[in-house]
Design a protein that fits this description.
Number of helices: 10
CATH topology of the largest domain: Rossmann fold
CATH architecture of the largest domain: 3-Layer(aba) Sandwich
Number of strands: 13
CATH class of the largest domain: Alpha Beta
Shape: globular
Amino acid sequence: MRRITRIATVGVASAALALSATACGGKKSTDTGSSDSTKAGTTAAIAYDIGGRGDQSFNDAAYAGLEKAEKDLGVKGAEAEPTEGESDADKVQRLTELARKGNNPVIGVGFAYAPAIKKVAAKFPKTTFGIIDDTSVTGPNVANMVFNEEQGSYLAGVAAAKASKSGKVGFIGGVEVPLIKKFEAGYVQGVKDTNPKAEVLTQYLSQPPNFEGFAKPDLGKAAAQGQIAKGADVVYAAAGLAGSGAIEAASTSGKWAIGVDSDQYNQEGLAKFKEKILTSVTKDVSDAVYNLIKSVKDGKAQTGEIRYGLDKDGVGLADSNPEYKKMAELIAAVDKAKADIIAGKIKVKTAP
């Protein structure tokens, strides 16, 4: 598998130059159409979101889907890392180089790729472009892989309310954007429906256009420490790589953390904190990536909105931690809530 090394951005021009030289083998084509150098479905590429591979969360889930496609489908995979403080122009350059090389599909991990995919997909009509967590960009060769994050977060709220002894729980959002507000809305509703007297402390780490709230663990750690100091004994962070800092803070304080996107109890990079990871809200990003790659390889490329919710196990709640002694009781409450959401008895909010 080919992978771009993460580098610091010196400027738009230098970042674009570095990416064009390394993203896909070092050759820069002047062709603006789709490449015929590689048979469709034999290679696939993912361009990572802020934090890159190794975030123990969102990006790593996408990588797992690519890795599975390599093993099960025999495709070759390419990866492209983000650069610090990059612009949309950098993303356009990255996706263009991946498409020129003949990768198909080319997948942007995260809503931040929407402007770039809108520009690049039109220039490569024979290439399928996937984007995770966005429906704003559409086209005949664009697949929008989206999730009902609010549903999974509602279940996390139920779990937090059940596990909390203080009656105070925390929510940490990486960046205050509509996507992360969905996590907040579901979580708060789940907490309040389970314990109306519970208090939810909410904090966002950064505001757009500053997206470092998805990338800096120290920010998540400080926010969690602040919430714990105010009495929170369960902290849920939807903050990408920054969320690992929140997990560390909860663990070292003897409080519970709730992970996000992947089952973070089983993430190797978080192993020393795993005993205090109560559960994780999971998004089946890995299967979404795998399914898109397989559809292209099979000659039936997915396009349009592809939605994953509780009804398809596209989101859910992990129950991996044997350290929580009342896990069976907690899961029973979660399972009831899940059934009620699927049946339409509970309508989960998508905004606070």
